[in-house]
Design brief:
The complex is a heterodimer of chains A (291) and B (313).
Chain A lengths: L6 H36 L3 H4 L14 H8 L9 H36 L5 H13 L6 H11 L5 H25 L3 H9 L4 H12 L1 H17 L2 H6 L5 H6 L9 H21 L1 H12 L2
Chain B lengths: L1 H8 L15 H30 L2 E2 L8 E2 L3 H8 L1 H32 L6 H13 L2 H11 L6 H8 L13 H28 L4 H9 L4 H29 L3 H6 L11 H11 L3 H26 L8
Antiparallel strand pairs in B: 1-2
Helix pairs in contact in B: 2-13, 3-13, 4-8, 4-10, 5-8, 6-8, 8-10, 9-10, 10-13, 12-13
Chain lengths: 291, 313
């Protein structure tokens, strides 16, 4: 239509495209600059990290920070950061995996029930889940603190799993119920007609088909658990990795480059998980978290 | 298989075919849901009620029984000067955080919705700050802006913006700005992921039709795109407001509330009441108030949204 005046719209379009790519570059810098700084420093000696002007790439790259952590040793420069990192990473992994397992077992059955069955109070149960989703973790920490202290579960991974279930289980139920709602009821009915029991229909028919929903829920729960700081700070003595990383404050008390390596090790698992299961995670996020 | 179902399901269209077990469907549904419901009562319901009870009690550290003190704890919290200061800081923090996370998130989503080369990689990049735990974002930014090892000081110095390396976190205003920035860095990605999910449900034909009608990009945004994502905007703003008011992680790791009380948000105050002053009663009163605000804000939003799910619109 307007193709008679080719030059001006074309020029305009080119300018817009250039602007968009410039914005894209800025976006990449926004995301990556903090990471680049972190990773860069994790391969430096403590002396090189304080060089002025700073080195944008390590001139004498070293694996010393990582090897100290992995060996559970005091890092070069005398920092004690390395001592606790490996155990804390292990605890974080254990807490995350256990929390995911509890969530899938409890949340899977409950979500299936809420998607398929009606009983007296089923509407109320669903609303209760929504309400539980809204209660902020920080608001109920006092009760957890006293209860875990009385139960002897302070500084225990099982204590953390119990506490983490309080804010992850509602997410799991909402994500999975949403997923089950999208599966046709004819699937269950066909299984029952074929002679399966209701539990068998859930286990052998629905569970395999609902795998993407389970993956989404598992990823979200693991990410929440892995990064949880407030409860880990208040209910344990630096058991998991977040309070360990946050515990090193003053520059002169420890070795920043070793902390950088520890932080890299702590950030790789959740980022990898989210990237690998990108599709599932984003859909689960939109359906279960935003609702 | 399909044909056999067809034969059976004419009779069983209303009720599921009778299984062998004697349990009714109603009972079965309840039994399936019960473990989760009991768990939620144990880990959310009871702690919630317990916190409410504590907020009206003086709770000794020893095993001595707690004593009822009426609304003393609330009066104590509300009457404290530091509460008012903290409330002001929290509101400033939340305002900055919500604007940063929401506006940047919307811009990122609109950008990554364009048919650009490298969009797939950019969308993968978008996930990374969100997948980075908030606490780790705090650690990264703390050291990024550190005057001894920090990269940001160097960049700004080389660009001529700074005359000297600056210990940002020792300055009241800058401390607030950078604790907002660190948390916003994480949260802008979260907002963008939700906006993008909403944008992707917008039927292409509508946008194309607007283009054919000669609408400019701005007109298309105002007339078509913005109305479409408005329900999601409400969701995102509400979540960001709540996360702003409840922000703890980045502030704790970067400034611990300082310098002075410049970044002492209400959750930091709550932490001090509970774990520094060991005042479980006053801490619980503050916790109850924070919890009520969070639940109220999101309930109002849920009601405003009605039954509309922004993703199924």
């Amino acid at each position: 239509m307007a193709s008679r005046t080719v030059s001006r719209p074309a020029l305009r379009k080119k300018a817009v495209t250039t602007l968009l790519y410039a914005a894209l570059a800025l976006f990449a810098v926004w995301v990556l600059f903090p990471f680049w700084f972190l990773v860069n420093n994790s391969f430096m000696t403590p002396e090189e990290a304080v060089a002025v002007p700073p080195h944008w790439i390590p001139e004498e790259p070293t694996l010393g920070n990582y090897s100290a952590i992995l060996a559970g040793k005091v890092a070069p420069g005398g920092a004690e950061v390395g001592l606790r990192v490996l155990t804390a990473l292990g605890e974080s992994l254990a807490v995350g995996v256990l929390t995911v397992m509890v969530n899938l077992a409890l949340g899977g059955t409950a979500a299936y029930s809420m998607s398929r069955y009606k009983y007296r109070g089923s509407r109320f149960a669903y609303l209760a889940v929504l309400f539980a989703r809204l209660v902020p973790a920080i608001a109920i920490v006092a009760a957890f603190f006293v209860a875990l202290r009385d139960l002897g579960l302070i500084n225990s991974r099982y204590g953390l799993v119990i506490v983490y279930t309080s804010f992850t289980l509602p997410i799991t139920i909402l994500v999975l119920k949403n997923y089950f709602d999208g599966l046709p009821r004819e699937l269950d009915e066909a299984a029952l007609v074929d002679g399966a029991s209701r539990l068998q229909a859930l286990w052998y028919v629905i569970r395999p088909i609902a795998r993407p929903g389970f993956i989404a829920a598992a990823c979200l729960v693991f990410l929440e658990s892995w990064g949880e700081f407030f409860y880990a700070l208040t209910l344990t003595n630096q058991l998991t990795i977040p309070p360990v990383l946050a515990g090193f404050r003053g520059f002169f008390q420890f070795n920043w480059t070793t902390l950088a390596a520890a932080t890299v090790l702590a950030v790789v698992p959740p980022v990898l998980l989210a990237l690998i299961f990108q599709r599932y995670v984003v859909r689960g996020l939109a359906q279960g978290v935003a609702k | 298989m399909v044909s056999s179902v067809g034969a059976g399901s004419t009779a069983g269209a209303k009720a599921l075919p009778r299984p062998a077990s004697a349990m009714s469907d109603r009972t079965f549904g309840l039994v399936l849901a019960l473990p989760a419901i009991i768990s939620l009562i144990l880990v959310v319901g009871i702690p919630g009620v317990q916190t409410l009870v504590y907020s009206f009690q003086r709770v000794p550290l020893s095993d001595d029984p707690a004593t009822f003190v009426g609304t003393d704890n609330y009066a104590k919290v509300l009457g404290d000067e530091s509460f008012v200061e903290s409330l002001v800081v929290t509101l400033q923090y939340t305002a900055g955080y919500v604007v940063l996370a929401t506006v940047l998130g919307l811009l990122f989503a609109l950008l990554l919705d364009q048919p650009l080369r490298g969009r797939g990689i950019a969308r993968a990049l978008l996930i990374i700050p969100w997948a980075t735990p908030v606490i780790i974002a705090g650690v990264m930014w703390k050291w990024l802006i550190d005057p001894q090892v920090g990269g940001l000081n160097a960049v700004l110095f080389e660009l001529g913006v700074l005359e000297d390396y600056k210990p940002f976190l020792a300055d009241r205003e800058w401390a607030l700005v950078f604790t907002i920035l660190a948390a916003g860095w994480h949260q802008a990605s979260f907002s963008a992921l939700l906006f993008l999910a909403s944008l992707q449900t917008l039927p292409n034909e509508i946008v194309e039709a607007a283009k054919v009608d000669g609408a400019t990009a701005w007109q298309r945004f105002r007339g078509v795109v913005f109305p479409w994502i408005r329900p999601m905007l409400l969701v995102v703003v509400v979540i960001n407001v709540i996360y702003g008011v409840l922000q703890f992680d980045t502030v704790w790791v970067m400034t611990q509330g300082g310098p002075g009380d410049a970044t002492t948000l209400l959750p930091i105050l709550l932490y001090r009441q509970l774990f520094i002053f060991s005042d479980i009663g006053a801490g619980s009163a503050l916790a109850v108030m924070l919890g009520v605000v969070a639940v109220l804000v999101s309930s109002i939003a849920l009601i405003l949204l009605g039954r509309d799910n922004p993703l199924e619109a």
